[in-house]
């Protein structure tokens, strides 16, 4: 496998008043294309910050981040937006669907950033909803769906533009065990069948078991690496 | 789905709030439209005035009479082509609330001078000349009351008493209908013989309210005015002569400064609406901070989000304002038909001004929320730090 995204000598610091808080320093990591990585660690260990850097929604204080040969740390905001739209699908703990849009329109949202016509967009939305098993809920609004169904819509939204990488931040944190297992199985399927590279931040060891690799982050350092 | 449908969905995500904002904007622009139409009506009052027409009134004010003998002296002034006179009757039909703008006029010359304003059939004119109780009614007035030629109607005065009957009522026969000969001609008026009025009036006999003069050339207007006023200087009824347009506008001016009223009312309404809509828009966008953060995360560029938020407030202003201008135009049309005020209309100028104000309202109320959305940091918006 080839490296899809890597961080070299990555550092992230925040200035709070007179104090400089270091989230991590001299961090190196490489994620291969097709990996399913779970990042675990206690609160404040820097998991979410790391995910933000990998997704290009936050910037490292120093170090380089490379995605398929492209230096994210050298891109401006506009370039990062374009890169995110083309390469990354995001799945959040609390789904973050647009309440004013029905399921189909929520899924269609990333496609507005492409040059696809409305017919092609409709086909892709139907396919994405079919993959997550929610074809019959296309016209339903988020408030009319359960948490599990909303998360499946969020997954459909994340994959509809066919990105190479999915970033999941506690995707099952708000769900019961049974629903969580369904969502995790779906992510595993996307990884194995569709070749999506998945990086998932989680507190849940059960969830981490679905990943092919688990990275433990503590005080800004990977303390061990466990094969799942 | 397009950016526009996304804007629409966001705008109506809270239906009650959107509806209340739309209603507020609708009423602001309805007020603007109606007041603008009324202002246009007042501006046009002098619109039908002939350029070479002068009006002489008592110098004290136009409610004070002048001796009828002035007319012959004025006709002899160099530069005067024709002169006629009229007296305010203070008329109403059946009940005081049914005001009828009625003038007791010198029949022949008055109709000649206003021949450019009104069309009258030759047979009706002949009938008017022949019948001292004859009444000419404007087309709008006739339409309002269903009057037709040959009808016998009583008109009462809220000023004068008929000394023949001891009542304030005079009986008339409608002998002709005055049709408009030009757009601004007011056909909600009625004319009758001054002689009929003068012979039966209990006071104010042989006096007139104003004298209308047609000059031989509009370039002579100023000279003729000066000569007339000089002629009656130091008399018991000194005169003030001005163009008819100035006279009409001065008459309206007594109602107050319409432009100032319009500006103040509309200004106050807009300042209030601006604050309400601006605050509500800012609140609506603030509530959607996380959604905007998600959109940015998905790859929507900040500039596109800025345009969408600004588009939302613009759309709100237009959705509330455009139907309001249409409603104002309709309302003015109904008012014009019912009161016969010819200039009551929402002109193209005012419509364009209304649209410019809508756009300004949309931009002003949307610019701050849009700017905040533009600058929104994704990590902060998602609360992920």
UniProtKB/TrEMBL annotation, chain A:
<dbReference type="InterPro" id="IPR027417">
    <property type="entry name" value="P-loop_NTPase"/>
</dbReference>
<dbReference type="GO" id="GO:0016887">
    <property type="term" value="F:ATP hydrolysis activity"/>
</dbReference>
<comment type="similarity">
    <text>Belongs to the ABC transporter superfamily. Macrolide exporter (TC 3.A.1.122) family.</text>
</comment>
<dbReference type="InterPro" id="IPR015854">
    <property type="entry name" value="ABC_transpr_LolD-like"/>
</dbReference>
<dbReference type="InterPro" id="IPR017911">
    <property type="entry name" value="MacB-like_ATP-bd"/>
</dbReference>
<dbReference type="GO" id="GO:0098796">
    <property type="term" value="C:membrane protein complex"/>
</dbReference>
<keyword id="KW-0547">Nucleotide-binding</keyword>
<dbReference type="GO" id="GO:0022857">
    <property type="term" value="F:transmembrane transporter activity"/>
</dbReference>
<keyword id="KW-0472">Membrane</keyword>
<keyword id="KW-0067">ATP-binding</keyword>
<dbReference type="InterPro" id="IPR003593">
    <property type="entry name" value="AAA+_ATPase"/>
</dbReference>
<feature type="domain" description="ABC transporter">
    <location>
        <begin position="5"/>
        <end position="228"/>
    </location>
</feature>
<protein>
    <submittedName>
        <fullName>ABC transporter ATP-binding protein</fullName>
    </submittedName>
</protein>
<dbReference type="Pfam" id="PF00005">
    <property type="entry name" value="ABC_tran"/>
</dbReference>
<dbReference type="InterPro" id="IPR003439">
    <property type="entry name" value="ABC_transporter-like_ATP-bd"/>
</dbReference>
<dbReference type="InterPro" id="IPR017871">
    <property type="entry name" value="ABC_transporter-like_CS"/>
</dbReference>
<keyword id="KW-0813">Transport</keyword>
<dbReference type="GO" id="GO:0005886">
    <property type="term" value="C:plasma membrane"/>
</dbReference>
<keyword id="KW-0997">Cell inner membrane</keyword>
<dbReference type="GO" id="GO:0005524">
    <property type="term" value="F:ATP binding"/>
</dbReference>
<keyword id="KW-1003">Cell membrane</keyword>
Automatic annotation (TrEMBL), chain B:
<feature type="transmembrane region" description="Helical">
    <location>
        <begin position="258"/>
        <end position="285"/>
    </location>
</feature>
<protein>
    <submittedName>
        <fullName>ABC transporter permease</fullName>
    </submittedName>
</protein>
<feature type="domain" description="ABC3 transporter permease C-terminal">
    <location>
        <begin position="266"/>
        <end position="378"/>
    </location>
</feature>
<keyword id="KW-0472">Membrane</keyword>
<feature type="transmembrane region" description="Helical">
    <location>
        <begin position="352"/>
        <end position="374"/>
    </location>
</feature>
<dbReference type="InterPro" id="IPR003838">
    <property type="entry name" value="ABC3_permease_C"/>
</dbReference>
<dbReference type="Pfam" id="PF02687">
    <property type="entry name" value="FtsX"/>
</dbReference>
<dbReference type="InterPro" id="IPR025857">
    <property type="entry name" value="MacB_PCD"/>
</dbReference>
<dbReference type="Pfam" id="PF12704">
    <property type="entry name" value="MacB_PCD"/>
</dbReference>
<feature type="transmembrane region" description="Helical">
    <location>
        <begin position="305"/>
        <end position="332"/>
    </location>
</feature>
<keyword id="KW-1133">Transmembrane helix</keyword>
<feature type="domain" description="MacB-like periplasmic core">
    <location>
        <begin position="21"/>
        <end position="230"/>
    </location>
</feature>
<keyword id="KW-1003">Cell membrane</keyword>
<dbReference type="InterPro" id="IPR051125">
    <property type="entry name" value="ABC-4/HrtB_transporter"/>
</dbReference>
<keyword id="KW-0812">Transmembrane</keyword>
<feature type="transmembrane region" description="Helical">
    <location>
        <begin position="20"/>
        <end position="38"/>
    </location>
</feature>
<dbReference type="GO" id="GO:0005886">
    <property type="term" value="C:plasma membrane"/>
</dbReference>
